[in-house]
Structures are given as C-alpha cells and as structure tokens.
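thought: user wants a sequence for this fold. calling inverse folding tool.
action: design(structure=
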C-alpha cells in the first residue's frame, strides 16, 4: 500500500485506541462527551457571525458538524479502516491526500479530547472548567498542530474546487465508493467540495478561523485564576 494509505491506517488505529481507552473507563467517556458538546457550543458562539451569512454560513456549518461535532463516528471509522486499500486505489491522489490530513486531524483531536477530559470535573462543562482542563493538560504545540490541520483540510477542499475534473471524478465515484463501503467518505468529500465551491474563495473564511482559533488558544493558556478561583480579565470572549 502507499505511504498515504499506511498513514491513514495508523491515524485510524490511534482513534480506535482512544475509543477503547474510554470504553475501559466509562467515567472518561462521559467527560469526553461533555467536552465535545461544550466545544461544539463554543464553535457556534465563536463563529455566530459567519454562521449567519449566506456566503460563509455553509462552510462554517460544515466545520461545525464534520470537524467539531460530538457525533460518534466509531462505526464509520471501523468500516473506513477496512477499505483504505480501496480508497487509495479508487480515488484521485489529491483526494487521498486530503483524507490523510483529515485522518491525522481526527486522531489528534481524539487524543487531545481524552487528555483534556481527564482534567474536567463531573457534570456539565463551563468556561472555568474548560480553561483549567486545557491549562492542566498543556500540549500547546499539539493545539497549534490541530489548528494547522483544520486549516489544511479547508485549503485542500478549496484547491480541489479549482479542478473541475475532480468534481466530475467524485460524481463518477458514487457507485464504486458505495460498493466499496466508502459512501460516508464520499458524502463528506462531495459536501465539502460543493460547500467550498459555493463560497467562491475561502481565503477570508480560513484566515478568520485561523486568527480566532489561535487567539483563543493563546488566551486559554495565558488565563489566570484569582485566589477565589475566578478567571481574571483575559480575552476569552470566544467562549460561551
């Protein structure tokens, strides 16, 4: 198999290891679910202005549902892992590269969610608990890598829209992809392609996402608590 295929499988093994870790510790699984739900609320709050626009709303919704959503993708990922050789063989190289980046983002996000969740209290996640969890988890470098991968997925989808033959190829792949068990991946790629093509240029959108995510990451790690446990005056307006 190709280097891309091997890398995709390795990232999926990382995701599976995190799921098994949570299954062995139900308490951790509950905390991760609460963290994911909070992060989805956070994204909706941070990008409320983009979600409300006709140009950027669909792309923001795509990121929210596909990259920040709390849905359980375990069955999809298990099916996906079995058909990676078919993916590498059937899809254009540019598309396979996009999937490799997506798989790395997926794996890193799952690892970071587990690490941060270990530092959460029981129950609903609020802003102070979220800030403390990130600070106690650390991993500033990995958070920056997560942001860079998120932007890379968007940039890859945008590049694909500049090649009309790729969209035609994706349409032609619907039957073979469904037969190979890749229908969910096919849906993701077509939705992402159509969303970014309709945006008519993603530079401003991705620049906004990058600047806000990095500003929030900086604020999270720089935030300080007073003696009573209250957050000091720090730029955390992105949090709900």
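)
observation: tool returned 240 residues.
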């Amino acid at each position: 198999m190709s280097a891309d295929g091997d890398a995709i499988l390795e990232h999926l093994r990382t995701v599976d290891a995190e799921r098994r870790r949570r299954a062995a510790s139900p308490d951790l699984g509950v905390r991760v679910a609460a963290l994911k739900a909070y992060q989805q609320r956070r994204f909706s709050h941070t990008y409320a202005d983009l979600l409300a626009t006709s140009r950027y709303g669909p792309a923001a919704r795509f990121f929210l549902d596909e990259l920040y959503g709390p849905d359980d993708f375990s069955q999809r990922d298990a099916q996906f892992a079995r058909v990676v050789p078919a993916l590498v063989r059937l899809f254009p190289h540019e598309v396979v590269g996009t999937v490799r980046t997506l798989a790395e983002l997926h794996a890193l996000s799952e690892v970071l969610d587990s690490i941060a969740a270990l530092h959460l209290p029981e129950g609903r996640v609020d802003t102070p608990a979220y800030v403390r969890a990130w600070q106690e988890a650390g991993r500033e470098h990995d958070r920056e890598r997560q942001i860079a991968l998120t932007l890379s997925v968007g940039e890859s989808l945008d590049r694909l829209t500049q090649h009309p033959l790729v969209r035609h190829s994706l349409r032609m792949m619907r039957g073979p992809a469904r037969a190979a068990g890749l229908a969910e991946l096919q849906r993701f790629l077509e939705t992402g392609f159509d969303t970014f093509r309709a945006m008519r240029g993603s530079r401003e959108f991705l620049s906004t996402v990058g600047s806000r995510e990095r500003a929030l990451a900086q604020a999270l790690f720089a935030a300080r608590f007073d003696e009573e446990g209250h957050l000091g005056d720090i730029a955390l307006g992105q949090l709900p």
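thought: summarizing for user.
answer: Here is the designed sequence. The chain is about 75% helix and 0% strand.
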